[in-house]
Design a protein that fits this description.
The complex is a heterodimer of chains A (122) and B (142). Chain A is mostly helical. Chain A contains six helices and no strands. The longest helix of chain A is centred in the first third of the chain and has 26 residues. Chain B is globular. The two termini of chain B are 33 Å apart. The chains are: A mainly alpha (122), B mainly alpha (142).
């Protein structure tokens, strides 16, 4: 029971956090060069985005839930099981971020989910 | 260091960096938390004790460092690529994590888990065959 609850918290907060960070990053000018100054400028712009901090807050919740569950479950069970977030992430990217998901990408996400189910049931 | 590379190439370079950083970070956290001990009493004091022990562990800090590297790579790649591309494409980290858990932490990976690993790999291959940006009409593939 505590494992299921903790996994739910991890999946939902991580998906919400990543969608929020993704939205924030699209507002920041794309990083063209990977020199230190450009990376620091990029990070400075990112840190000014409100949605970035919303995302970081949600990711932090997921992170602490992850720390807790790793204290009693194997990492090779926990990490693949949290990949259930791929399904919620795909839906969120289409409905919230307005991305177009071609059939091949949906097929890939389904295969990833099947893989997650296999890993979690064993 | 100045690396002016093409959009497709830099996307894949960052994806590889994300996968390696996430896998290493998770394995290090797993090792560190096992060393810190499991949660036996779900009281505020018990949980606080666990986190105090965890943050005194070097593996936990190394794991956090790796996950920070993952976060920065994730942020950079998301500035031009779709979330629905980056998210499944980076799932190779689950495969690498399972292998690291098996080889470094001595965890058992059953045949069904191996089958899951293969399915995840096939899914990643399909996803990476699509355009990494569907919002701006990327000319790469499609």
């Amino acid at each position: 029971m505590r494992t299921a609850l903790c996994l739910s918290i991890i999946v939902l907060s991580t998906t919400g956090g990543e969608v929020a960070v993704s939205h924030a990053m699209k507002q920041v000018r794309e990083l063209g060069n990977f020199d230190l100054r450009s990376v620091l400028d990029f990070l400075r712009q990112a840190l000014r985005e409100t949605w970035f901090w919303v995302g970081i807050g949600l990711l932090a919740v997921g992170f602490f839930a992850m720390l807790a569950i790793l204290s009693w479950q194997d990492v090779s069970f926990v990490i693949p099981a949290t990949a259930l977030g791929y399904v919620s992430g795909a839906l969120a990217s289409k409905l919230i971020l307005g991305e177009r998901l071609p059939p091949r990408r949906w097929a890939g996400i389904v295969l990833v989910s099947v893989g997650v189910a296999l890993v979690s049931l064993s | 260091m100045r690396l002016a590379v093409g959009s497709e190439r830099r996307t894949y370079v960052l994806l590889v960096l994300m996968v390696l950083a996430a896998s290493s970070g998770n394995v290090l956290l797993g090792k560190g938390m096992k060393q810190a001990g499991g949660v036996t009493v779900w009281s505020p004091a018990g949980v606080t004790t666990l986190f105090v022990k965890a943050f005194a562990n070097s593996c936990v800090w190394l794991g956090i460092g790796c996950l920070l590297l993952f976060l920065v790579s994730f942020m950079v790649v998301l500035s031009w690529a779709d979330y629905s591309f980056v998210m499944p494409a980076s799932s190779s980290s689950y495969v690498v994590t399972a292998l690291m858990g098996h080889w470094l932490l001595g965890e058992i990976v059953t045949p069904a888990r191996w089958a899951g690993v293969v399915s995840i790999c096939l899914g990643v291959v399909l996803v990476t065959g699509t355009s990494f940006n569907t919002r701006m009409g990327s000319p790469i593939r499609e």
